[in-house]
Amino acid sequence: MAQVPNLPRELRSTQVLARFLLRMIILVVFAAFGSIGFGRSLAALLGMSTILSAVIGTMRREPPFDIVLNHWDETVAYAALFSLVSSFTPSVPL
């Protein structure tokens, strides 16, 4: 019977960057079809992605300051983009 090789548990940084770019493309496409406007939709999706990446990083027990990129680095990138987008998005007056 053929043995399945042991796959590495960690992803390489290039794989994490590719995953991040693919997720950003998906978020931008969904935000383009949002009924509340592109900026507000993108800010909401980036906020949810920040929380999701932090939860996944915690569940996988990834170290925050590792040599290779991981979910914690994605969390920081999503949070930075969320801050940038929300600073340019006008708030709705009540």
Structural class estimated from helices and strands: mainly alpha
Q: In which range does the helix fraction lie?
A: 55-70%
User: What's the end-to-end separation, in Å?
Assistant: 68 Å
Mean pLDDT: 87
Provide structural commentary:
This protein is an all-alpha fold. The chain has one domain (13-88). It contains three helices and no strands. The chain has helices at residues 13-32, 38-59, 71-88. Helix 2 (38-59) runs antiparallel to helix 3. The protein is elongated.
Walk me through the topology:
Layout: H1 13-32, H2 38-59, H3 71-88
Helix pairs in contact: 1-2, 2-3
Pick out its properties.
single chain, mainly alpha, 94 residues
Short recap of the structure:
This protein is an all-alpha fold and 94 residues long.
